Amino acid sequence: MRNRYLDLLRFLAIVRVVVYHVTGWAALTLIFPAMSVMFALAGSLMAASLDRTGVPAVARRLRRLLPSLWVLAAVFVPAMLLTGLPLTPKVLLWLFPVSDPPANQWGAIALSPIWYLRDYLWFVLASPVALWLFRRAPLPTLLAPYALLGAIEFGVLANPPTVLREFGLYFGAWLLGFAHHDGLLRRIANRVLVPLAAALGAAGLCWILTHPGPRGHDLNDIHLGNALWSAAFILVAIGRAPAAAPWVDRIPALGRAVTVLNRRALTVYLWHMPFVVALTPLVDVVGWSHQDPLGLAFRVALVFALVGVVTLLVGWVEDLAARRTPELVPGRPRRSAAERAAAAPASPAPAGAETGLAVAGARVPSPRAPERSGLTPR
Question: If you write DSSP's letter for every residue of 200-269 in order, what string do you get?
């Protein structure tokens, strides 16, 4: 049974990412640190997968991750090769991005969200060992990424590889997902969790305010502040996640939107940025400034509309990758077996027969159908 509250968090995270990339509002990164939340949710799911199937869960997770990337690459890599990208063996990184795959000038911007898949891939590969360590030494394992990030930020480790820096920045959120799956966050008493989250949040906010980046107080440019602030957010938003959130589906439009975006999260994430980049020249053509609310609202709506079209065209790849029945628009209510049987036309009786079954020359009355009640078996 899926936790609809966690589905709602993922839905909000995806929406926030798209809106942020259109508007560039740094405040959105503080209000909702979407990328860390997505890594925490992914870490929780990865721990659950490892518990179910063990190390083969790594291959299953990669199988669900990579096909959507390959569809994107099938469109954009030839376009980049035709517009100046050299054809080198590094192009193969678009098949398995353990490092940033090559891109030309416009592709580097339009396809910049690929870093998330690169980090996700590394975190999945590291998860079997990380989960083994986490369950034997939870606190030291959880603190290790933050210590690594601190060493990088304070210059102890100079010029670290990109992947190492990303482990320091986001793997702590992934491990908090482990803690959520194992119930450790739930078992922390409020008298401990609330002050801990407040202390982390205060430390992160102080670092953010005193170390602004090139875009001001945008968390994407302030790594240590990002990690601390995000940890505080995750402790509260996920650490106190309810076991269920049935109210999400009591609002049909919201429930359907949450389902669709969860089933198509990777497609929306990968494809939204090319449309953001393509629509940016409209700002100059139409005369809207980046601060014009009407222009920003129009661009957000248009990006979502275009992503919706692409999702209809290629989103079903996510169904195939997850070994689900492909759907153009996921989340349609499915009828139960009893409902399908009740709706099926009755078979015509054989000629000469009445309502009974002939058994050795005798008539046996047909079993009576159970009376229908207000409850339908599911």
Answer: HHHHHHHHHHHS-BTTBS-GGG-HHHHHHHHHHHHHHHTTT--S--THHHHSHHHHHHHHHHHHTHHHHH
Q: Which residues pair with 216 in a beta bridge?
A: 213
Both structure tokens of 308: 């919706």
What are 190-246's pLDDT values in tens digits? 999 999 999 999 999 999 999 999 999 999 999 999 999 999 999 999 999 998 889
Question: Which tokens is 306 given?
Answer: 């275009």
What is the residue extent of each domain of the chain? 25-251
Amino acid of residue 345:
P
Residues 111, 273 contacting (CB under 8 angstroms): yes
Task: Give residue-wise pLDDT tens across range 326-363.
Answer: 999 987 766 555 555 665 555 454 444 343 333 334 44
Q: At 90, is the secondary structure helix, strand, or coil?
A: helix
Long-range contacts of 193-198 (CB under 8 A, 24+ apart): 193/235, 193/236, 193/239, 193/240, 194/236, 196/235, 197/232, 197/235, 197/236, 197/239, 198/232
